Amino acid sequence: MKGTPYTGSPAPAPHLRPHAAAGLVFALSFLFYLATLAPTVIWGDSAEFAIHAKRLHLDISADSHPLFVILGRLFSFLPFEPAYSLNLLTAVTASLAVSMVYLVVFELTGSVAASIAGASSLAVSHAFWLHAVITEVYDLNAFFITAIVLVLLKWRRMPEKHSLLYAAAFLFGLGLANHLIMALSIVGFFVFIALTDRRVLLSIRTAGFTILSFLIGNALMIHLLIGKLIAGRQAAAVANAAAGGAHKKAMFTVSLKVFHDFLMYLAYLFYQFPLAGIALGAFGITAVFRKNRDAGLLLSLLILINMAFFLTFGPGAARTTKYTFYIPDYAVFSIFIGCGFAALADYFRRKGYPGKPVCAVMLFLIVALPIFLYSVAPYASKKLSVDLLHARSIPYRDNEEFFLYPGKRGYTGAVRYADEALKTAGPGAIIIADHTLFTVLRYCQEIRGMGNDVKVLPSGSFAKRTPETTVAGNYGTRDIYLASMEKYYYRVRELRDEYDFVPVGVLFKVVKKPGKA
How far apart are CA 274 and CA 267, in angstroms? Predict the structure, then answer.
């Protein structure tokens, strides 16, 4: 039997081969995401990725994800609308991550049932599921992290196979080309390697091949970096962009709000794995450390370092979307859930309780409780008049339903908004829009061919364009509309002295006040 039974779990059922079960986990999770997949474009980043995939726009910065864009370009050749094709890409990468969790838990426990439990807990967890049915990069990042964990655990069992170490380095380099937050996991991986066999760190040959493997995996990023330097970009400017650019200050801003954010982190974790998942995860942490301290330390470091970094990240608007950055933590925690499932099943078996009914009940709770919670939460929030989200209001988006329930089957609110906004503005008009709305408007213009005679401008840009400069430079020659009245994005206070904002459909027409003409 392959896999090292660290938690003393039973051998897998003979009628279900472990790796065949991994394929079944992939297929079922993909079908689950396919059934709840967004049918078209979604607000913000999802629309932007579709545009970048069409243009094959590749960049190197904290906000760019060149590997995902290339994969998106390949998927865009499918006979579907580009946004839907990229949603399919995310469903595939999410299903791969779920399969990796299955394989990691099997490597740690040797139990098919426990592996299915761990994979299922991730598949139906809120943030992971939400980002599996829209176009996003976070689930692909979870795939790379769990894949590297799997390879390193196999290398620990067979330390003489340095090819596994090289494979881990290659995956790490490739993962960085998808998302730079992958870099945070290096501490956990390095510590695990040192604890397993520190001699490999001192071997020039092994270290050299490991570095070479990383460089091959990271070849896309290196190519983009060299291209920018050849194009005349200053090295300091490129390094600044790659290190976070405008986000750097937020990344290292620490305040007393970190305690509030820690409590929110725990709340997010509970929402991903309500009751049964949290209990099994806590039990699994104890079980893994008792049977394999090094594996427990690796998994714990992956969670703790990522959590510590993002607890301090982003004052302001970024604080409301932090759960997206915690998705790798949820993937690792689901491994603990699988290990806790195995340990608890073993405990009940040793006490003389029938194993199969207990396992069936635990698996049912792992899957059913989250789905039930996500189905009830939007209605409970409205009924109790409790604003759990503090999210901005956007036309054709019910915030409670959109954010609290992950599934996006049948949701077309973004396209409905863009269609109405572009028709309302009319030929020759200007719409000033923030990122969330701007990307949807540009997607519908560029890819759906809607309202191309309307000029859509971002509410802010690196060229220091602001709503005030756009309005002042164009008023009187074109009709000008704001896509929203959000003060944070549109600097409404700076415009109010001279202009009024008249609601017209989903837009706000900019009109000079009497006496200011």
Answer: 10
